[in-house]
Known about the structure:
The structure holds two protein chains of two kinds. By secondary structure, chain A is mainly α.
Amino acid sequence: MTGKQKKQALVFWTFRMMALIVVGLLAWILVFIFIKGAGVISWEFLTTAPTEGMTEGGIFPAIVGTLCLVVGSMVIAFPIGVMSGIYINEYAANNLFVKFIRIMTNNLASIPSIVFGLFGMALFVNTLGFGDSIIAGSFTLGLLVLPIVIRTTEESLKAIPNSFRNGSRALGATKLQTINKVVLPMAVPNILTGLIISIGRVSGETAPILFTVAAYFLPKLPSSIFDQVMALPYHLYVLSTSGTDIEAARPMAYGTALVLIIIVLIINILASTIRNVFNKKVK
Amino acid sequence: MDIISAENIDFYYGDFHALKGISMGIEENSVTALIGPSGCGKSTFLRLMNRMNDLIDNTRMTGNLIIDGQNIYDKKVDVDSLRTKVGMVFQKPNPFPKSIFENVAYGLRVAGEKDRYVLEEVVENSLKSAALWDEVKDQLKKSAFELSGGQQQRLCIARALAIKPKIILMDEPASALDPLSTSKIEDLIFTLRNDYTIVIVTHNMQQASRISDKTAFFYLGELIEYGETRQMFLKPRLEATQNYITGRFG
């Protein structure tokens, strides 16, 4: 090997090792959680409420609660975020106002989630009087992921060449028709990616739900959006820090973590299947 | 009678003075070629005729552009319906990510046509006029992206024909295509001149001389010479035109 080739090989192997380290760590986490948590997973664990000071029973109310919060926050964040993204990229002129919106969106994305929790408590729980409830938690989580939805929408619209827009306008289509019939259908797969990322984020966040919705122990399922619910990430926190018998609850904690990961995985797979179907349609 | 009449048009991109005092008339059912080196303003002038320059920020125009008896820059003009009268074919084929059928039907659908029978008839006629029907008649449901570049461009012409424009603007329609596809497009333009007024921007001198009735030579934003194509190519009045046509600059 010449010196030049050696250098090439060295760089190649360094990059490859880095990539392997990432994959390795990820696999380690998954395997670790799986080994520790798989033992407690059973039909009963998935379908009953915790009992015996949360050292026995299951996590059903927390699963339901997390699903409620995912759906609730998406119902709030998705329309607002997608419409804002469309406005920014398709309608707004590239002026100071839009630059301001963009900077604010980026700032919003970098605010720590606990701050969102505090804000959510002040606005939705207290000022608007929702109390600790699914709706207050959904709004708070929705706000948290709004920047992600706005940005992915904006980026996916930006990726569509203007030649398609011009082609449509040149045939007498209005701006709205062009967006509806040409631009959006092409952007949907990438916009859905934003949805997937947001769902992953929402289902795992603990801080924003801490003061707005999450219940310490509530075996009863919610009957309206104004009820409190348990949620998987908070339940995991409770089991690991403040149960009556933390050691005895440890396997339940790993089981909860495993369920949380699996739920996020399932949602991801579902969403990317939908995305692929759309992708095929576009092509 | 001129179907298009430009009167003393000036056009600016921001501070850049892209067109300077352009006046010219274009006859109905003729082919007019706009030639000139890159940046001379010929494409800008073309895009004024269906107001596509409106979509570019920070532009300004003065002068009058009369199409079919109407000043198209009048405030009362509905730009979307103007564009159904003045169709356009772009430099690169830009079919939509839809089926061949839906591409051709697009202009009618956005205009509110829902009758399946009407749509089918117009799609068939347009594809026939664009000399594409025989190649695609059995695969109308296939994605337009599966067609070759030349076929895609003829599809874009069919798409423009479907809304029955009076005028078709073509912005270097064959510059991204191979010689065979190019000659098909040229044949097509030759037959379309019977029913449409065609204004075509081209960098290809032979193409301009083959297909156009009249030729306009633009340079640095000005209309240098405009006249019968044969006369322009055989005996141009100005030396600048002669030099450009023979390839001495540009």
